[in-house]
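Long-time lurker, first post.

We've been arguing in lab meeting about whether zinc ion would sit comfortably in this protein at all. Half the group thinks yes, half thinks no, and nobody has a model to point at. So I'm putting the question to the forum: if I give you the sequence and the SMILES, can you give me back a predicted structure of the complex? Inputs are below. Any interpretation is welcome too.
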Amino acid sequence: MDLEVESQIVCPYCGAVFMTVVDTSSGTFSTIEDCEVCCRPIAVNVHCHYGEIEAVDIDRA
Ligand SMILES: [Zn+2]
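Top reply:
Settle the argument with this. Predicted structure of the protein with zinc ion, as tokens:
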């Protein structure tokens, strides 16, 4: 099973859409991703099972 799943992120600052790869092997987690366009920090909360993303919450970090 492929535990690395691509997820789409929409930047809460500039609205840019980009893809990131999520490691689902350890379940639900939070991380900070820098926007590829405006470089501001995005708080990403990933709700996932082994190999499957349930939901991605995005907020300003
Ligand atoms: Zn941005």
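For your lab meeting: The CA atoms of residues 45 and 57 lie 5 Å apart. The longest strand covers residues 41-49. Whichever side wins, do check it experimentally.
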